[in-house]
Design brief:
The chain has nine helices and five strands; from the N terminus they run βαβαβαβαβααααα. It is α/β, with parallel strands linked by helices and 223 residues long. Helix 4 links the parallel strand 4 and strand 5.
Length: 223
């Protein structure tokens, strides 16, 4: 269900059928929107503003083709949701409209549950897109933020190295005895075994580098 908000959420209702237009206007009002009915398609661009959240178009009742309205809206706002309302025999036209920029469509008679789901989804997708644009703009304007991920990766690698060194030193100190090493490190033997495997060591295997006394003394690793 659409959550109500104190923020003005303008919706342009471009629907020729009076019954459908009245129903849609009432639904949007009940769900916290500010619907504005438009009869002249050519005036759509003059009513678009930063508070506009969605345009809903009856492709059967509009004076201009759906493609014309979609082009008008997209020339002003590239990511503004455009919801189509069509009769069942106009489904093919609705699908074609999706290919030229419409967001989604509903077939008459329009149901409140379906309208709620599709409007909510369209608004969330637009919000995510806007947040992504804002994030990219922030990163490009602040080089420091762009380096955060690299710094984080370097820190992870450092912590990984510290853990590896601590485990290997402990194993050396206890002659490769896993039970004593795990107890000293405050971890379980199972966790220690997983770490040894992660670092490339196996029972009785050769270590790739560094000191690891007892790594080749098979029995000692099972203590």
């Amino acid at each position: 269900m659409i959550m109500k908000s104190d923020e003005t959420k303008k919706v342009l209702v471009v629907v020729g059928d009076p019954h459908t237009r009245q129903w849609l206007t009432g639904w949007f009002q009940d769900n916290g929107f500010d619907p504005f009915e438009i009869n002249d398609v050519d005036s759509v661009s003059t009513h678009l503003c930063e508070k506009t959240r969605l345009v809903i178009l009856d492709i059967n009742g509009a004076d201009a083709p759906a493609a014309g309205l979609i082009k008008i809206v997209r020339s002003v706002e590239a990511n503004l949701p455009i919801m189509l309302v069509a009769a069942s025999d106009s489904k093919d036209l609705a699908v074609q409209s999706l290919q030229i920029g419409a967001t989604d469509y509903l077939l008459k008679p329009v149901g409140g549950a379906e309208l709620s789901v599709k409007v909510d989804r369209a608004l969330k997708e637009r919000q995510l897109h806007q947040e992504l644009i804002a994030l990219r703009a922030t990163k490009s304007s602040n080089p420091i933020l762009g380096e955060i991920s690299n710094v984080a990766k370097q820190e992870v690698k450092t912590l990984h190295s510290i853990e590896r060194e601590a485990i290997l030193r402990a194993l050396d100190g206890f002659g490769g005895a896993r039970g004593k090493t795990a107890k000293a490190l405050g971890i379980s033997v199972r966790t220690l075994q997983r770490k040894i495997k992660e670092y490339g060591y196996t029972n009785g295997g050769e270590k790739p580098s560094g000191s690891f006394s007892g790594a080749n003394s098979g029995n000692a690793l099972h203590n």
